[in-house]
Write a structure and sequence with these properties.
This protein is α/β, with parallel strands linked by helices and 264 residues long. It has one domain (2-263): Metallo-dependent phosphatases (Purple Acid Phosphatase, chain A, domain 2). Helices cover 22% and strands 29% of the residues. The chain has 6 helices and 13 strands. It has helices at residues 17-30, 47-59, 78-83, 87-92, 130-141, 172-179; strands spanning 2-7, 34-38, 64-67, 100-102, 106-110, 148-152, 186-189, 196-200, 203-207, 223-229, 233-242, 245-257, 260-263. The strands form 2 sheets. Strands 3-2-1-10-11-12-13 form a 7-stranded mixed β-sheet, covered by helices on one side. A 6-stranded mixed β-sheet has the order 4-5-6-7-9-8, covered by helices on one side. Helix 5 links the parallel strand 5 (106-110) and strand 6 (148-152). Helix 5 packs parallel to helix 6 (172-179). The model has no long low-confidence stretch (mean pLDDT 94). Bound molecules: fe (ii) ion (2 copies). One fe (ii) ion (FE2) is lined by residues 9, 11, 40, 69, 71, 191, 193, 210.
Length: 264
């Protein structure tokens, strides 16, 4: 059985130190085989924040899989944003903005959905491009039948009704239409700092909130998700920061029938 830990929006620069230490304790206890980090590793993409993030990553005794978020691009250093937007990411984190990783049991497909600019005022918004959609569908077309297929992207493909004012990822409808029925099992995202799991078009959407930062929405604690199971049955547990520890808050089980996931 595969055990994956999904954390997000760590936001080095706005870290809650006790929560970061609690996360390290939880990692030791849960012993996941992989830690998935869905972007916004830093707050302002400074060298200092990246250095702190890199120190945290190198302290992990677990492999990690990471994609960037909009906060990993500089907002205020405009020349850097337009000329060499990912310089600090590539220097401190890794050269690859869109990693891929696979085992016999699962395939992780990472995409970079943050954009340095767009034809809109809010540049925190993200997008999935036609070439990224094609890249994902091609990767899945060669996958073994029993291998779980996970897409990792910072920006959300679905939002709970009360949060629909936040923008969904651009290109979402085209992406979902392309992924539907092609074997994609899970989409893991962050960005909105809320945690939830939801089945959409037979795929599971799983969001972690901000795992370690003080950028919390009202009544929304720091959180992470644990994904356990295989291509036929998955349990996703959401863990919330409560009374000085991450504690199991909600558990949902999903089953796959005729290529579609359903909540059990
Ligand atoms: Fe964030
Ligand atoms: Fe974000």
């Amino acid at each position: 059985m595969t055990t994956l830990l999904h954390i997000s929006d760590l936001h080095f620069g706005r870290i809650l130190t006790d929560v970061l230490e609690g996360l390290k304790r939880s990692i030791r206890v849960l012993a996941p085989e992989m830690i998935i980090i869905s972007g916004d590793l830093t707050q302002r993409a400074t060298a200092k924040e990246y250095q702190q993030a890199a120190e945290f990553l190198s302290s992990l005794n677990t492999p990690y899989f990471i994609v960037p978020g909009n906060h990993d691009l500089s907002t205020f250093r405009v020349v850097e944003r337009f000329i060499c937007p990912w310089r600090n990411w590539k220097k401190w984190i890794q050269s690859d903005l869109e990693p891929q990783f696979s085992t016999e049991d699962y395939q992780l497909m990472g995409i970079n959905t943050a954009r340095k600019a767009g034809f809109y005022m809010d540049w925190s918004r993200g997008r999935i491009s036609p070439s990224q959609i094609q890249q994902i569908t091609q990767q899945m077309s060669h996958a073994p039948q029993q291998q779980l297929q996970l897409l990792v992207a910072h920006h959300p493909f679905w939002l709970p009704p009360q949060y629909e004012a936040r923008h969904l990822i651009g290109g979402r409808d085209e992406a979902l239409a392309s992924f539907k029925g092609r074997g994609l099992d899970l989409i893991l995202s962050g960005h909105v700092h809320i945690d939830y799991c939801h089945v959409l078009d037979g795929m599971i959407i799983s969001h972690a909130g901000t795992t370690t930062s003080d950028r919390l929405l009202p009544d929304t604690p720091n959180s992470f998700n644990v994904i356990q199971g295989d291509k036929n049955r998955l349990t996703i547990t959401r863990h919330h920061w409560q009374q000085g520890e991450f504690q199991l808050s909600q558990s949902q089980t999903f089953q796959r029938k005729n290529g579609q996931w359903h909540e059990a």
